[in-house]
Amino acid sequence: MDTRKVGKEDFISKLPNDVVAHILSYLNTKEAVQTAVLSRRWRYLWTYIHSLNFNDFHIREMEGRNQVFMDFVDRVLGLRGSRNIQTFTLGFYDFRRQNDLLRVNAWINYALCCNVKELDLFLLLEYEERIPVRLPENFSSCESLVALKLRTDFVFTIPSTITCFPSLKVLRVDAKHPDCEFLSTLFCRCPVLEDLFIYVNDLGQDGDDQVEHTFTISIPTLKRLKIDICRRFENFSDQKFIIQTPNLVYLTIQDDSMAYFVIDEIPSLLEAKVSIGHSTFFYKDQVSQQEAHRLLMGILKGIRNAKFLNLSASTTAALSYAVDDDLPTFLFMLRLEMGIDHFFGWKSLPHFLRNSPILEFLVLERVTFDEAGGELDVEDNFGWIPPMPQPYCLLQHLKEIKMRYLWALEDEAEVVKYLLENGKVLEKMSFMFDEDSSEEELNADMIEEFPRGSEKCVIEFD
């Protein structure tokens, strides 16, 4: 067989049109269009692509880029006709509302008429611009749309008499100056929505005035919810999220702002990840102990049915600052992951051990806050206090413990000694020390000598 001839064969050109179009759909739309120069057969092959991705970021330095970009989009849509669209992505960084909105809405209408299934919209607005972009009147009635990303402040008409987005299962909303009433209405009007991601940036920043926002997320069909609130150290804990999602399976809350959450009980919850606050160094200036307790218990009581729980170091630090005997009981929790910070230490761990009766797997990860920039007073450095009486999970259920990034300090030695000695059914305990740890107060040899409550317990070091 002559391998030289095989190497020169054009296998791609022999493929059917629909297969070639599928391959071209993985390219940027501009690159796909450029294949038209390859041969006469390729001239219009790109018009069969089912995914369109328009983004002007790569021509941001070009003179007249705004007009060049819009003319290109118009030309592509005009040539490809009315073929169905799987994915339509628009990233318009040089968007000028007054001049460009009519054409942008015409593109969106085109995608809707082509039965688009996945739509991703981003229009860059001026930083101080607070008026949301209004989308076409018929936008919410699209029956084909399955996934929608709105990565700018948008609004559109939500009719009161018909169902909104009857096929929509995945929704992402990025909000800088959110219209909470509009969004709350949108959330509850999507009849089959399963996956919701809300990203809020600079919520409530209205000069020196504090702006109140209330999000109501009432979605019976929702299975996965992620809320990410990104803001620097300012406190605006009067902001509220009301969550009514009885069939939720996965919940993630990432909140630098210490907002207030009211979460109705979620019987079906499998996994919850919570990261609240930014750095323990700022807690005394952010919120009072009573306020921290109110904010955190609103979340914990709502997620008490979770089987797997992940708490960041900032969350456990805030809990250490506010925790008391009001911590809910986690009757179904099997796995707990906790970050342990430098300032507030281990104070909340005994509470979780007592209140997690069937816990089987525990992960403790030591974390330092480099951005804190200083030390708190000794009286604020909450240490380890062994829980009394012995937690039921240690006696009957806890099988594996992982401790990561240990600093080899005295407080860690006390925790390790307690868990090893009181873990009566413990099968495995593994350790990983931070690369900068001194190992003066705790090391592998010392751990091997600690008494073990379980004869089956194996100790490992990473």
List the helices and strands and how they pair.
Layout: H1 3-8, H2 17-24, H3 29-34, E1 51-55, H4 65-80, E2 87-92, H5 97-113, E3 118-123, E4 133-134, E5 147-150, E6 154-155, E7 170-175, H6 180-188, E8 195-201, E9 205-206, E10 209-210, E11 214-218, E12 224-230, E13 240-244, E14 250-255, E15 260-263, E16 271-276, H7 283-286, H8 289-302, E17 308-311, H9 313-322, E18 335-340, H10 349-354, E19 361-366, H11 392-396, E20 400-406, H12 410-422, E21 428-433, H13 444-449, E22 458-461
Parallel strand pairs: 1-2, 2-3, 3-5, 4-6, 5-7, 7-8, 8-12, 11-13, 12-14, 13-15, 14-16, 16-17, 17-18, 18-19, 19-20, 20-21, 21-22
Antiparallel strand pairs: 9-10
Helix pairs in contact: 8-9
Percentage of residues in strands: 15-25%
Q: So how many helices? A: 13
Low-confidence stretches: 1-6, 370-381
Side-by-side strand order of the widest sheet: 1-2-3-5-7-8-12-14-16-17-18-19-20-21-22
Biggest sheet overview: 15 strands, parallel
| Main structural class | alpha/beta
Radius of gyration: 28 Å
Q: What's the end-to-end separation, in Å?
A: 53 Å
Shape: elongated
Helix content range: 25-40%
Residue-averaged pLDDT, rounded? 83
Number of strand elements:
22
Protein name: F-box/LRR-repeat protein At4g14103-like
Organism: Durio zibethinus (Durian)
Pfam family, one: LRR_At5g56370
Domain F-box: 9-62
